[in-house]
Amino acid sequence: MNYQMQDPNIESYDQAVELLYASASRQKRSYIKHFVRLLAEAGGRLRHVAAVPRALGLSVVRKMEEIPQSKALLRGVLKGEARAEEDELAALKRYLDGAGSLRRRGPVVSPAAARKAKTTFRLARPEGEAKCTVSDGRVELKLARD
C-alpha cells in the first residue's frame, strides 16, 4: 500500500487510515489502525485476513507493543505457504501463548504478597458503633448486634 502516490503528505499508515476512513467513528478508526499494524508486522504472511476476529487481532497487536522483540516470533509462527483459516488462527493464538515467555524474567511476586489497599473507619450509630472495612472488591459493615 503506497498512499504517498495519492497524497505525498501521507507519511504513515495511521495518516492513511485517517484519510480513508474520515467518516468512520474514532473507535472504528482505532480498530482499523491496530489491524493495519498487524498486517504490516506480519509482512504479508497473513493469508486469511477476514477470518481474524477483532479481539484476537487486537490482542496480537497489544502483545507486539508490550513485547517488541516478539515480532520475529509472529513472523515465525506465520511462515509457510498453504494454511487453512483454522491453522492461521491457531498460529496467532500460539504467538500469544509463546510471546509471554519472551518477557524479561524478574522477581516473581505472588498475588498474596502483593499489597492490598484496605480502609477502615467507624461510624457512631444509634444502634451502636459500626465498623466499616473497605478493600478491593469488598465492603464489610459490622455492628455489635446480629
Give the overall form. Answer: elongated
- Give the number of helices: 5
C-alpha Rg, in Å?
25 Å
Oligomer: single chain
Count the beta strands: 3
Any key phrases for this structure?
single chain; alpha+beta; 3-stranded antiparallel beta sheet
Protein model, in words:
The protein is an alpha+beta fold. The protein folds into two domains: 3-102, no CATH class; 115-146, no CATH class. The chain contains five helices and three strands. Strands 1-2-3 form a three-stranded antiparallel sheet, with no helix packed on it. Helix 2 (26-42) crosses helix 3 (54-66). It starts with 12 loop residues before the first helix and ends with a strand. The model is unreliable at 104-108 (pLDDT under 50).
Question: How do the helices and strands line up, and which of them pair or pack?
Answer:
Layout: H1 13-20, H2 26-42, H3 54-66, H4 71-77, H5 85-99, E1 118-125, E2 128-135, E3 138-142
Produce a short descriptive summary.
The protein is of the alpha+beta class. It is 41% helix and 14% strand. It folds into 2 domains: 3-102, no CATH class; 115-146, no CATH class.
